[in-house]
Fold this sequence. Notes:
Elements: H1 14-23, E1 33-35, E2 43-44, E3 50-59, H2 71-87, E4 92-102, H3 108-125, E5 128-136, E6 142-151, E7 167-171, H4 176-193, H5 205-212, H6 219-227, E8 232-236, H7 240-251, E9 254-258, H8 266-275, H9 279-285, E10 291-296, H10 301-305, E11 310-317, E12 323-326, E13 332-334
Helix pairs in contact: 1-3, 2-3, 4-5, 4-8
The protein binds adenosine-5'-diphosphate and magnesium ion.
Amino acid sequence: MAEQKELTPISALGEFGLIERITKEARCQNLSTKLGVGDDAAILDFSDHETLISSDMLVEGVHFDLSYMPLKHLGYKSVVVSISDIVAMNGTPSQIIVSIGASARTSVEALDELYSGINDACKHYQVDLVGGDTVSSRSGLVISMMAIGYVEKGKSVKRSGAKANDLICVTGDLGAAYMGLQILIREKEVFKVNPNSQPDLSTYEYIIQRQLKPETPVNMLKIFENIGVPTSMIDISDGLSSELIHLCKASKTGCVIYEEQLPIDHTTVDFGMEIQIDGTIAAMNGGEDYELLFTMPLDMYDTIKRYPEIRVIGHMTDEQKGCQLIGKDGTLVQIEAQGYSHS
Ligand code: ADP
Ligand code: MG
């Protein structure tokens, strides 16, 4: 390593000093937070709304690689991954609880960075950090994130409500986060061989950003309030194929989607050509897009068309038809549980 900065071991602060340091920025922005960090438990009050709770765990070496994932981005992304599940129920995320398993290699400065990303995301999404736990880990860094949110009674959207003929819709674009990861992996290999290389990644800034700093489309909550709630919904964390299968299984439907309707950014397609991975494959199987996949009644078509945020990619069918993708050339491919392949 070229330069070695002086890093503080966690033991220098002790558990309480550390907790004080990493939670000092935590501000309560929501009326539903009656008591945040500092006591034995947080107190929340959602009055007549229903409460949504979800949990995600991120493990070093399994879910993230610190050699190309800056800790600040990791903190931000962990919050997004977690609140995305609340948004996918048509809920407004309002609190998070963050538990950390820190290894002997984790410094105080590293946790400062991680929490600066967590705090940025909290500010951006108006979510309160109301608690957590801090323990030591024998392996790598472990982040467990619980998200809490609320939804008006009767307005939550499950995976199971879709009917045959419902329109299948997605937000944003797909496959970019996967391609961004491929760039970061490639650059890590290049760096290993030549640490002085200064790659020009500006052409691919968009897809790298989609991998390192994803966002969840909270703006859709307002749109659903205006046009009505979807019949079913899920967030796209594992790739479109597997999420479509989840919706169809839960709703007991089949589906048809059209390759030419898939929203794929041109940068995703361009980089895909460089590494010979089709943009459609990345969109279907890539994952980590954190966009929303949802269904709407067919008679909503004209309304939906007015929203550039929403792309109609197909429709639900009877269960017996299974999940199908109609290719650009008209060929019909069965979407499999593992995903989709061209062969
Ligand atoms: P306890 O012993 O009751 O579990 P702790 O000493 O672990 O309490 O935590 C003290 C307070 O700090 C609690 O409000 C807890 O929720 C909060 N806290 C602990 N660790 C974290 C963390 N990593 N991030 C945010 N809040 C934390
Ligand atoms: Mg504790």
